[in-house]
Design goal:
Elements: H1 2-37, H2 41-50, H3 56-81, H4 89-104, H5 114-140, H6 144-167, H7 197-214, H8 217-227, H9 229-234, H10 239-263, H11 282-288, H12 296-316, H13 323-336, H14 344-351
Helix pairs in contact: 1-2, 1-13, 2-12, 3-7, 3-10, 3-11, 3-12, 4-5, 4-6, 4-10, 5-6, 5-10, 7-8, 8-10
């Protein structure tokens, strides 16, 4: 029993330490780069570290990013758990956002059912769009990376065309739909901020995904397929079926993220390229969290803070916001590598109990 506790402590310490060391290392390099590229490096660094907490508005921006990063991180973590590398979350976001917008702009959008109906439409259509690359791989052996990326391209172009041709007001020259009815927009918990229903949806989704992965037979099969697909086949588990279902559930989360985008207080409408490339950042969240659902929101909190700090630094100082790309790349390289935290063995010895006679 003692060995089990010690091994768990050592594993937790190693993972947390790895992430902390990676973050500190990336920040040190970012500080050095800021020091040599800014005329006022002190102000730039202060904005990076404290900008998201400077007002209710910036805190709302941070919370909004955390909600969206959590959902996209969960979507990628699910398919990575099944040892698949589908890149289709962005396409699922566009499809889910489109159908959520269609519900919001329909007669249903003015009723009390507007928000749940739009969310349901986004989840169903996102799941269907996630099912397609999974079925293509299971049935025809197509590479899921290529097929999902191509489906992303199709979804983005089709949605952009529909927004310009059908949803934007005729003759206005706008690249967005009219504002949704108030009953179709997520209510803000703090007025005039982006602190809205999206963060609650993200938390609920984390709990649901964790329960599905660690408290259901389906989750056990998925993790077994991801760990050792050949052994899973010998055990009577249909690996292809599990793989397709994982990509379908991931697609449902991607569609849900689309609804959070277009129905959130930040938008309240659908526009072309409304995602801003954020869904792909879920890959980083999933990698740092080691595909663990409960770790995804924790990583999203810290990464979202850095992301907002970098954007504010780009607005308020002379340092470009692209500096966050340096931090992203370094975090991925350090966390994905196999280095060990310095002093790990020494601390493990200090907490180890003497063996029984």
């Amino acid at each position: 029993m003692a060995r089990t506790k010690n091994s768990r402590f050592e594993a937790v310490f190693n993972e947390v330490g790895r992430a902390v060391v990676a973050l500190l290392g990336a920040l040190i390099v970012a500080f050095i780069a800021i020091w040599f590229t800014s005329d006022d490096p002190g102000k730039a660094i202060d904005t990076l570290l404290t900008g998201p907490l400077s007002s209710k508005r910036t805190m709302g921006l941070w919370v909004d990013d955390v909600a969206k990063l959590t959902l996209t991180g969960l979507a990628f973590a699910l398919v990575f758990q099944a040892r698949q590398f589908s890149m289709g979350v962005q396409g699922q976001v566009f499809v889910g956002g489109l159908f959520a917008a269609l519900v919001a702009l329909s007669p249903v959008g003015t009723t009390a059912l507007a928000i749940p109906a739009a969310i349901l439409a986004a989840i169903v259509t996102g799941a269907i769009y996630g099912f397609i690359p999974g079925y293509i791989k299971a049935r025809f052996g197509a590479n899921e990376i290529v097929s999902s990326l191509m489906l992303n391209y199709i979804a983005i172009k089709v949605v952009d065309y529909i927004v310009r041709a059908d949803l934007a007001p005729a003759g206005s020259g706008q690249l967005m739909s009219p504002k949704f009815p108030k009953s179709s927009i997520f209510p803000a918990f703090i007025p005039h901020t982006r602190f809205d229903l999206g963060i609650v949806i993200a938390i609920i989704t984390v709990v649901v995904v964790w329960f599905m992965l660690y408290r259901t037979r389906w989750g056990l099969k998925l993790r077994l397929v991801g760990h050792n697909p050949r052994f899973a086949e010998y055990s009577g588990i249909r690996a292809n079926s599990i793989m397709v279902s994982a990509m379908t559930v991931s697609g449902a989360i991607g569609g849900l993220l689309g609804a959070v985008f277009v129905q959130g207080t930040a938008f309240g409408r659908i526009a072309i390229d409304f995602d801003g490339g954020l869904p792909f950042e879920g890959i980083l969240i999933a990698i740092v969290a080691r595909n663990r659902p409960l770790a995804v929101p924790v990583v999203a909190i810290f990464y979202g803070y850095l992301r907002q700090g970098a954007q504010l630094m780009g607005i308020r100082t002379d340092v470009p916001a692209e500096m966050i790309s340096v931090v992203q790349a370094l975090v991925i390289l350090l966390v994905a590598s196999s280095f060990s935290v310095p002093g790990r063995k020494l601390i493990a010895r200090l907490f180890a109990r003497p063996a029984a006679a």
